[in-house]
Design brief:
Length: about 240
C-alpha cells in the first residue's frame, strides 16, 4: 500500500508539474512572440549600424509578421495581460520606430531631424493615438504598416535616400493624422486574410528579397489606402 500511494503521489505530482508548465506556456506564448519581435528589432539596429541594410530589412519584415501574430495568439489563448500590452508597445517602438528610422541613414542635420521626427511619430502613435475608443479600431496608422512600406521601398529602390525621406514624411503624416484604421485581424478573420498572412511568411522566409518586398509593399499599401473597404472585420 505504501508503494502504491508513493507511486500515485509521484504521478499526480508529475501531472501537476506538466499542468503548470502548459499553463505557463499558454499565458506567455504571445509574450514570447513580442520578445522575438523585440530581438528582431535590436538585431536590425545592429545590422544597420554595421551597414548591413539587407539583413536589417529582412529582420524588420520578420518583426512585422511577429507583431501581427502576437495579439491573435493572446486572444486565442485568452492570455491578454497588462504585461503583454507593455511588451508589445516596447517591441513596436524598438522595431518599427528606432530600427526602422536607421534605414534613413541619418547623415547631416536634416537626415537626423527626419529620423528623430519619425521615431517621435511612432512614440506619439503608440502613447496617444492608438486607442480610438471603438473595439478593434485604431486611431492613426499602425506603425508596423508604416515600417513595412518603408522597408519595401528601401529594398526596391536599393536605398534611394531621397525617395525614402519623402516616403517617411508621408508615413509620419499618416501616423499623427489620427485617422481611423481597422484592426485587420489577419489571423482571426476571413480565410483569404489568413492566406495573405501565410503568403507573407512564405515570401519573407523562403523567397528572394525583391519578391518579399513587392508582396509586403502591396499588402501595406492596400491597408493604408483601403483600410475599411478591404481590411475591416466585415470586409
Amino acid at each position: 500500500a505504501g508503494i502504491f500511494q508513493a507511486t500515485k503521489k509521484l504521478v499526480l505530482s508529475e501531472r501537476a508539474g506538466w499542468g503548470r508548465t502548459l499553463e505557463f506556456i499558454r499565458k506567455n506564448a504571445a509574450n514570447g512572440l513580442s520578445v522575438a519581435n523585440l530581438l528582431a528589432g535590436l538585431s536590425s539596429i545592429l545590422c544597420s549600424l554595421n551597414r548591413q541594410y539587407h539583413h536589417s530589412c529582412w529582420l524588420l519584415l520578420v518583426g512585422f509578421l511577429l507583431d501581427l501574430a502576437d495579439g491573435a495568439v493572446a486572444r486565442r489563448l485568452d492570455a491578454c495581460s497588462a504585461l503583454g500590452a507593455k511588451l508589445d508597445d516596447f517591441a513596436d517602438f524598438t522595431t518599427f520606430g528606432l530600427a526602422t528610422a536607421l534605414l534613413l541613414q541619418p547623415q547631416g542635420v536634416l537626415g537626423g531631424l527626419l529620423a528623430i521626427a519619425y521615431v517621435m511619430a511612432v512614440f506619439a502613435r503608440l502613447c496617444f493615438f492608438s486607442s480610438a475608443g471603438i473595439p478593434f479600431t485604431y486611431r492613426g496608422l499602425p506603425c508596423p504598416y508604416a515600417s513595412a512600406l518603408l522597408v519595401s521601398t528601401f529594398l526596391l529602390t536599393a536605398g534611394n535616400v531621397t525617395l525614402l525621406r519623402v516616403t517617411t514624411i508621408v508615413m509620419i503624416l499618416f501616423m499623427v493624422d489620427q485617422g481611423f484604421y481597422p484592426h485587420d485581424k489577419v489571423l482571426e478573420s476571413q480565410l483569404w486574410k489568413k492566406v495573405v498572412y501565410a503568403g507573407g511568411v512564405a515570401t519573407v522566409l523562403f523567397l528572394p528579397a525583391t519578391v518579399a518586398s513587392v508582396y509586403c509593399l502591396a499588402w501595406s499599401t492596400s491597408y493604408i489606402i483601403f483600410p475599411f473597404a478591404v481590411w475591416s472585420c466585415k470586409a
